[in-house]
Amino acid sequence: MSHEDTLAQAEGLSLWRLFLVFFKIGCISWGGYMALISVVRSEIVDRHKFLDDTELMDGVALAMLLPGPVAVNVVAYVGNKMRGTIGAAICAFAVILPSFFFMLGFAVLYFTWGELVIADKALAGVLPAVAAIILNAALKMRGKALRGPLDWAVAIAAATLLLTVGGILMVVLIIVGAATIGMMRGSPEAEGTQSNESVSHATPKFGTGTAISIAFLALCLGLFLVLPQLDISSVLLQLFSVFSGMSLLLFGGGYIFIPMIQEAVVHAQAWLTTDEFAASIALGQVTPGPILISATFIGYKVAGIAGAVLATVAIFLPPAVLIIVFSNQLERISHMAYFKAAQAGIRPAICGMIVSAAVGLLLAINFGDDMWRNMIPVAIFLASLFTLIQLKKDEVWVIVGAAILGMLLF
Hints:
Blueprint: H1 3-10, H2 15-28, H3 33-47, H4 53-65, H5 70-113, H6 120-145, H7 149-164, H8 168-185, H9 208-226, H10 235-247, H11 257-268, H12 274-286, H13 294-333, H14 337-363, H15 371-389, H16 395-409
Helix pairs in contact: 1-5, 2-3, 2-5, 3-5, 3-6, 4-5, 4-14, 5-13, 6-14, 6-15, 6-16, 7-8, 7-14, 8-14, 9-10, 9-13, 10-11, 10-13, 12-13, 15-16
């Protein structure tokens, strides 16, 4: 499906409806970026059919190679594919909004009463359900991604490497290796495609919007590098500088954020104590959406609600702008045969990495000595899979049901 076809097909979905769809996604996407991507797939590919699995997997691959939060980058990519820049802005804003309000509320409670309010039992029930949601997405994607023994081998290798080695370098190596395999093999989708030389729009073109975007990104990095050398007293400007600059250096997702931001806000700026920073990370784990929403907590401590808003915008906006720029340029070369072959090679790897995320969540469950108690998360996982696959119920009911079971059984 071409970008023009996607835009034309999405015109029937109003911007308000688009906001509501992604606001709903933001409300139920506990468990990390793969959980959010899985829910995006359910809504956009299965329910509304505005994108297909191949387009979504291409967006995931691009988001993994660029800095910033993978989940929000994927959402911006999807919004841009559907309704252009305004669609990207609305989708990203809507998906972040629920976790922003959660985190802002937690921050107010924490700094007012000095207590950390975390629903541990509910979260214990939600985690195996999230693993089921992620695995279900991978199972649905396999039809487009796994078309032969080589694809299966790439997917299994990707999952195994991420589970045993892990790290951003391994993610890059997996994607580069899978793309190389795809180009060496060739892609059925590339048959009949024009050659590289004959595609008139293959050369990237930079319009006014792209130039403005690049200037904005350069400004963010420039402020980050230069502002510490200047005697600037504005706390809001300092907040924007730190978070916008860091966001463009966060390769590998939200967990890379922890040591980098700790160095900036605890040691360099002394905005938070070590305990307060630990609280911001803990709360980021139990809110829906990306862990980088911890920026809201930090911003609130430094400059109240204005600081919370500014820090949140600064950590998410620059990477979203960057992925829109790259997405628009990739669209210009998407008809090239080698590019199509590389994409076809990457898709099995993405499928394998999604499976590894589900397995990783299951392995992270804290099992004790009580055998019967240990069966509870396993039962929730299997019940969630049954509800999704056989009963074909929406993910929101799975999350709510798992949270209730967690509170009752743990």
